[in-house]
């Protein structure tokens, strides 16, 4: 599979044509902090807290979102790329991928989950519950939506999280334990 942007509107994986399909990403849960995970043979995984959650809103003229999501869900995935806080959208993507691969552990790609939201409505979400960072610092995650079409992968949309901090084990405050006798 090649990973190049698609220049023409894609078709659904059914017989319908969808020339007016739009993708919208909404960050529902921002990452705030993380304890630095271990390095070497004994990797002490400490996931980003809270886990990032991104909602997908998929729309097409004169079509219900629910049915459209059910048709598209097996073909959509979201990749989270760790970037330094001072990085811009124009930075070279190959540098971002190298930076990301050196500093992350765990799953940084999520498939689409069709779940019920807090108000009991159906929604489409990407969840990143197993992602850890190896180095202390302040970072953001660039969330990029991809769609598998025929024999290639198409980039569709991206969104960037707010800053979050990663602390070393020495700087993470331990909870105060009080014993009552």
TrEMBL record:
Compartments, record wording: Nucleus
Entry keyword annotation includes Transmembrane: no
InterPro entries assigned to the protein according to its UniProt record, in alphabetical order: Velvet, Velvet_dom, Velvet_dom_sf
Keywords, alphabetical: Nucleus, Transcription, Transcription regulation
Residues covered by the Velvet domain: 18-181
Domain of life: Eukaryota
Chief place of localization: nucleus
Entry's Gene Ontology cellular component terms: nucleus
Protein name: Velvet domain-containing protein
Originating organism: Phycomyces blakesleeanus (strain ATCC 8743b / DSM 1359 / FGSC 10004 / NBRC 33097 / NRRL 1555)
């Amino acid at each position: 599979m090649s990973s190049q942007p698609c220049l023409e509107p894609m078709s659904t994986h059914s017989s319908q044509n969808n020339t007016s399909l739009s993708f919208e990403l909404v960050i529902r849960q921002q990452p705030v902090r993380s304890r630095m995970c271990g390095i070497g043979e004994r990797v002490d995984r400490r996931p980003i807290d809270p886990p990032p959650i991104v909602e997908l809103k998929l729309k097409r003229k004169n079509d219900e979102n629910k049915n459209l999501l059910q048709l598209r869900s097996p073909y959509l995935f979201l990749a989270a790329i760790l970037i330094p806080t001072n990085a811009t959208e124009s930075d070279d993507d190959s540098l971002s991928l190298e930076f990301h691969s050196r500093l992350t552990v765990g799953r940084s790609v999520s498939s689409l989950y069709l779940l019920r939201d807090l108000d009991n409505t159906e929604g489409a979400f990407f969840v990143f519950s197993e992602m850890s960072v190896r180095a202390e610092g302040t970072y953001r995650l660039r969330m990029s939506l991809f769609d598998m079409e025929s024999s290639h992968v198409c980039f569709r949309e991206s969104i960037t999280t707010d800053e979050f901090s990663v602390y070393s084990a020495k700087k993470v405050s331990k909870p105060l334990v009080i014993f009552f006798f």
